[in-house]
Fold this protein.
Amino acid sequence: MSLNSHIEWTDATWNPVRGCTKVSPGCKHCYAETFAERFRGVKGHPYEQGFDLKLVPEKLTEPFSWRSPKLVFVNSMSDLFQEGVPDRYIEAVCRVMVTAKWHTFQVLTKRSARLRELLSGRLRFAAEQGHIWWGVSVEDRKYGLPRIGDLQQAPARVRFLSVEPLLEDLGAFDLSGISWVIVGGESGPGARPMRPEWVISIRDQCRVQRVPFFFKQWGGVRKAKNGRELDGRTYDEYPRRVTAPVPDRVRCAEFAESILNSFRGLANPGALVQVGV
Ligand code: SF4
């Protein structure tokens, strides 16, 4: 976990899964892969296996250890709905999120078909929670726009789009049932450019359809230089958050223990150490 995440639209990251495989053009310069591969072969490092898929059950109960409510980006270093993650493990992640309702969780995927199927069935209990926001990545028309349709068909209470890296003009698209749109350009070496008119088109559609709009960055090779202003201002809108008090440490430890007990075989008792008991 990383508190004080450098990602503009979240407070913390939580990674009960590490590693992923590329599925579409938006993955080309995946920052998670670049970071993880730096440590391949480094003995004892969390990314000793580079960007290979790895379940991290000892991280499952981590949100119970945070003593203030957080906006939590789930699996910033992976994709929860990728093929190699068992349904039962995704369910365990969802049980933690549903129980830790004092946090707001942001789950973002490019595997929108699996998200739609699971939220319509096994994960229905999590789909309908107002403190869990379900999102898909939208980088272009061919791969990105169909994901919006999958998300709209999923019975999620809060749906969002991460339009990043925006690689072309998306044209007009349907925002019904969408509660939040984030837009950003690609950053770092080899960053593909994003044109202002593509961003303005999305912002204007959000205005018309009354969807909160968050402009993350222009990106580019030197992203700090390009900033995050659009038409002379920043856009930092969010959906409404549900708030709840954080229970005391003993209660949090009981929650963690109960979840670990119901998912024996996925997690080990060592995970309780994270809760501070
Ligand atoms: S889906 Fe996300 S985490 Fe996975 S390779 Fe693509 S950009 Fe990286």
